[in-house]
Every structure is written in structure tokens, then in C-alpha cells.
Design a protein that fits this description.
Bound molecules: uridine-5'-diphosphate, magnesium ion
CATH superfamily of the largest domain: Spore Coat Polysaccharide Biosynthesis Protein SpsA, Chain A
Mean pLDDT: 88
Number of helices: 10
Structural class: alpha/beta
Helix content: 40-55%
CATH architecture of the largest domain: Alpha-Beta Complex
CATH topology of the largest domain: Spore Coat Polysaccharide Biosynthesis Protein SpsA, Chain A
Number of strands: 9
Number of domains: 2
CATH class of the largest domain: Alpha Beta
Strand content: 5-15%
Order of helices and strands: EHEHEHEHEHEHHEHHHEE
């Protein structure tokens, strides 16, 4: 049973010379199994994105490409970070593939579930999220901070799939929709759920890193979390207004207290006026800052000029367009 779905496995790599040879070996074996099982077409490829590595990553990729026709690579001029490298790979794949699956170069994401991703794709899903069934391989610190991060994002009103990193399948039309998001501060995990095409999840167990060391130390992780919050939510700005109102109310109570102390004659002369003005002015200033922040928030959303919708399907003269056209893609609109 031959399959004509071209699948691209997109792998961002930064200083991965130690892990890559084994990754390429295992991935090509798994890809071949998918082709043999009729889940992916002969034209399927592994696309490695060298994110400006300083070691021999690119040499490893070019050598592998010479030996194995399923290996191809793109090299970024500078180290632009995981999210940008991933986007570069996905946008390259969009031109050639019917669907693309992104995964890490250290094979922490279990590649034995790739078949399940393809089953869901053939079943009509445009986006399939790889979700970790447990966080056993993480340190207690990473587990707790990750849990806190997901609940914070939820409270800030950001739609995200919990325990999903960037192990994900996207159909060509989902990739086309993604290319409409023109923001510079990339947080793919927040953007992809906004696309909204039919989606599903595949559960997998995340393993230990195979070789080399993590490129996400604590500092980068905090930066990434901040990026997630500030790229998707203006709630922190609204919090300032609320805090200002709270301080103003508090200052009125303080004012009453200071007046009572003054009348009772227990206050040092001048104290009342100073305390009251500090509180009240502080509250008013914070409130005003919050108001300015609200406008800044609006400018921020406008400047990003994200697409406002993607048309999933359309009925035209009794025929259904869009879903039927899948996986070749349907129009996405502004
Ligand atoms: N990566 C990248 N550019 C960077 C940092 C990381 O392309 O600036 C890649 C890296 O090669 C790996 C993936 O992003 O394929 C995830 O990184 P890592 O495994 O170090 O993160 P962790 O799994 O520890 O969170
Ligand atoms: Mg990793």
C-alpha cells in the first residue's frame, strides 16, 4: 500500500555533533518503517536546521546528506534560538511537504510514536500535539516550575497545551496559517493553538538526553517563560491599574487614620500631610501608569498584526472546500 504523503521531520540543532550521528541513524530507520507501513510517502525527508552551531554540526549534516538521500539540511547564519530555528525549518518544509513533525535533536521525544502522529493526520487532523504522559525524567525543580508556568499562563488567559513541548505535527495548511503570524518574539506553543484547525494529542514518555548537554539552562528557561507571558498577555499591564486602585483605597484609609491621630493630638506636626500625600500620589501614579499601559497594550496587539482568523472550511455551491482539499491546504484569511 503506497502512500503519497510527503512527511518532513524537522530537527533544530545547536552544537549537536555528539548526538546527531545516532539521531540520524534512528530517525532514518523509523522513517523507513513509516514508508514501509504506508504511513508516509517515498519523498519523505529529515530536515536538519543548523542554528549557527559552533561545533561540527553542519559537517555532520552535510556528510549524512551525501550518504543518505532522505537527509537534508539548512544552515542559519547565526544562532537565533530554538524557536526561530524551528520556524526556519517548518517554513522550508512548508514548500515541499504535506505535513511536518518537529522534534529535538537529542531524541528525548520518543520517536516510536511517530506512526500514531501519522494515523491522526490521515484521520483528518491538521495539528497533533505530542504530550508527555509523565515528567518522571525531569528534576523535581523542573517539574514544579513547569507546572507553575502552565497554571500561570492559564490564569493569564493564554491557551496552551499542558506538558507539550515542540514535538508536534502540522499539516501544510496549518504551516501556511503559521506563516501568517509575523511576530518577531516567537513562542510557538502559544501561537499554534490559536490556529484552531482540527487537532488531537499523542501521549509519549520523554527520555533523558542521549548525548551532549541541555541548551536550555535555567536562565534561558526563565527568559522563555517571560517571552510566553509577554507575547500573549497584556494582563500584567492591567494588574498595574488594579494595584493603583488598591493603593488609592488604602491611602484613603491611611488618610482617615492620620486625621484621627492628628485630631487626637498624637501625631508629630507635618506627619499627617506627608504620609497622606505619599500614599495618595503613589496610588494615583500607579493607576495612571496602568491606564497608559492599557493603551500600550492595545498598540502592542495592533503592531503584531496577527491574522485574525483562519478559514477552516467553506461550502461553495453545495460542495465542501477546505477539508476535502486537505492535505493540499485551504485558504487562510486575514
Ligand atoms: N536548540 C537550537 N538553538 C538553540 C538552543 C537549542 O536549535 O539556541 C535546539 C537543540 O539542538 C535541541 C532543541 O533545540 O534540538 C532543544 O534543546 P535542548 O535539548 O538543549 O533543550 P531541553 O530538552 O534541555 O529543554
Ligand atoms: Mg532536550
Amino acid at each position: 500500500m503506497a502512500c503519497d504523503t510527503t512527511l518532513y521531520l524537522v530537527v533544530p540543532c545547536y552544537n549537536e555533533e555528539e548526538a546527531l550521528p545516532e539521531t540520524i541513524r534512528q530517525l532514518s530507520q523509523t522513517l523507513q518503517e513509516l514508508v514501509d507501513a504506508g504511513k508516509a510517502g517515498e519523498g519523505s525527508r529529515m530536515l536538519f536546521v543548523d542554528d549557527g552551531s559552533r561545533d561540527n554540526t553542519w559537517e555532520v549534516i552535510t556528510r549524512a546528506a551525501g550518504e543518505n538521500q532522505r537527509v537534508c539540511g539548512v544552515k542559519l547564519a547565526h544562532n537565533r534560538g530554538h524557536q526561530n530555528a524551528l520556524l526556519a525549518g517548518l517554513m522550508t518544509a512548508k514548500e515541499k511537504a504535506d505535513c511536518a513533525i518537529s522534534l529535538d535533536a537529542d531524541l528525548q521525544d520518543d520517536i516510536s510514536v511517530l506512526g500514531e502522529f501519522m494515523d491522526k493526520y490521515h484521520g483528518g487532523c491538521d495539528i497533533v500535539y505530542g504530550v508527555r504522559s509523565s515528567r518522571k525524567t525531569d528534576t523535581a525543580f523542573k517539574r514544579n516550575t513547569a507546572g507553575g508556568f502552565y497554571s500561570l499562563m492559564k490564569r493569564l488567559g493564554v491557551e496552551m497545551v499542558s506538558n507539550h513541548a515542540d514535538y508536534r505535527l502540522m499539516s501544510r495548511r496549518a504551516l501556511e496559517a503559521l506563516s501568517d503570524y509575523r511576530e518577531v518574539n516567537l513562542f510557538l506553543r502559544g501561537i499554534v493553538p490559536q490556529i484552531g484547525y482540527p487537532q488531537d494529542v499523542v501521549y509519549y514518555e520523554r527520555k533523558e538526553r542521549m548525548a551532549g548537554e541541555s541548551k536550555y539552562p535555567l536562565k534561558k528557561m526563565i527568559g522563555f517563560a517571560m517571552e510566553g507571558v509577554t507575547s500573549f498577555s497584556v494582563k500584567p499591564l492591567k494588574l498595574i491599574s488594579n494595584f493603583g486602585i488598591f493603593i488609592s483605597i488604602l491611602s484613603i484609609l491611611g488618610l482617615l487614620y492620620a486625621l484621627v491621630s492628628f485630631l487626637a493630638g498624637v501625631a508629630v506636626p507635618g506627619w499627617t500631610a506627608i504620609v497622606c500625600s505619599i500614599f495618595l500620589l503613589g496610588g494615583i501614579q500607579l493607576f495612571c501608569l496602568g491606564v497608559v499601559g492599557t493603551y500600550v497594550g492595545k498598540i502592542y496587539s495592533e503592531v503584531k498584526s496577527r491574522p485574525r482568523f483562519h478559514i477552516e472550511t467553506e461550502t461553495m455551491q453545495g460542495t465542501e472546500r477546505g477539508r476535502k482539499a486537505h492535505p493540499l491546504g485551504a485558504p487562510s484569511g486575514f
